[in-house]
Design a protein that fits this description.
With about 325 residues, this protein is mostly beta strands. Helix content is about 10%, strand content about 45%. The chain is built from 4 helices and 22 strands. It has helices spanning about 50-60, 75-85, 100-105, 120-130, and strands at about 5-10, 20-25, 30-35, 40-45, 65-70, 90-95, 115-120, 140-150, 155-160, 165, 170-175, 180-190, 190-195, 195, 200-205, 220, 225-240, 250-255, 260-270, 275-285, 290-295, 305-310. It has a 7-stranded mixed beta sheet, with helices on one face. Strands 8-9-15-12-11-16 form a 6-stranded antiparallel beta barrel. Strands 17-20-19-18-21-22 form a 6-stranded antiparallel β-barrel.
Length: about 325
């Protein structure tokens, strides 16, 4: 059964039109399982008060619905962030905004040519029902977005299989830690299964780890499949055109990598590259995009740039 994860951003209370409320934290998930398709919508509940939930929603997503129902500062920041994320996006126009106003807002961004739909829930449900997960190559990879203890079971992690096939009793590394854990059991939308494939949203009971050792952004994957380091080089630096504050060597910023958001110190930087030192090891694939955040700014968007990540010097 194909399964897809959709970021619903730009307006609140849209995701609930697509499924039943499930896990809730700074992001809230809504799930719908039909005979031939499973949909999970992710809403950044604590945005715009906090920026990371918006990044988490986009980091989890195969597709994005960007709902523009008013012209506001949060919408402008949402567009600035979504412009840097390579997530297929459909623009949804609310009844109180005009197409020409939105076209001016999107001009010069990758979203300028994104498909547009009116805010018509039956039509949108038909649209998203045909969406599929993004391709996932390589060994099994499961980023963790939530984790908690379950009485009589132990540590349980929630996430989406992003590559390969996850099997019960697999032994995988809990990246970026060195710990090896065993997959005791797997559930897909509350149904116990023996395996799960790309796009499936899973709950996994884990052996060999305590619940308080689990955190969002950790990844279940084989030994050697990923990289873990606190020293990172960023190349192909692509600044956010709307970010107004200067940042350079010595600046204290944050870096979003997958579902991780960590404080970093900025090292040497030029027009195309930058070096970061994180406050703890992070997990990444070489070439994976990272997003530089300026969470202290009070003017303009809090996202500063996108970079392609590589191992830095020891």
């Amino acid at each position: 059964m194909p399964a897809v994860t959709i970021a619903t951003i730009g307006a609140r209370d849209v995701a609930k039109e697509f499924g039943k409320k499930g896990t809730g934290s700074d992001v809230t998930l809504y799930n719908l399982v039909t005979e031939g398709h499973a949909i999970t919508c992710v809403e950044p509940t604590n945005f715009p008060e906090r920026l990371p939930p918006l990044l988490i929603a986009l980091g989890m997503a195969d597709h994005c619905l960007l709902v523009i129902d008013q012209l506001s500062r949060p919408i402008a920041e949402t567009i600035a962030v979504a412009d840097l994320y390579d997530v297929p996006t459909t623009i949804v126009l609310g009844p109180s905004v005009g197409a020409e106003e939105v076209a001016r807002l999107l001009k010069g961004t990758r979203l300028e040519t994104a498909p547009e739909q009116p805010l018509d829930y039956p039509a949108l449900r038909q649209l998203v029902d045909a969406w599929l997960p993004r391709p996932g190559d390589g060994p099994v990879t499961v980023p963790i977005d939530h984790a908690f203890p379950v009485k009589g079971v132990g540590a349980v992690a929630l996430g989406v299989v992003r590559a390969g096939t996850l099997h019960a009793h697999d032994k995988l590394r809990l990246w970026p830690t060195p710990k090896i854990v065993e997959i005791r059991s797997i559930q897909v939308h509350d149904v116990e299964v023996t395996h799960a494939s790309n796009g499936d949203r899973v709950g996994v009971a884990l052996k060999g780890v305590d619940p308080d050792e689990l955190a969002r952004g950790q990844i279940l994957a084989p030994e050697g499949a990923l990289h873990a380091s606190a020293s990172l080089n960023g190349s192909a630096l692509f600044p956010c055109r709307y970010h107004r504050s200067a940042w350079g060597e010595g600046a204290q910023m944050h870096l979003a990598i997958g579902l991780q958001v960590v404080p970093v110190s900025v090292g040497p930087r030029d027009a195309q590259s930058v070096r970061f030192t994180a406050d703890r090891p992070v997990v990444f694939r070489p070439g994976q995009p990272g997003y530089v955040l300026d969470l202290s700014t009070t003017t303009g968007p809090r996202i500063a740039a996108r970079v392609a990540l590589q191992d830095g010097p020891p």
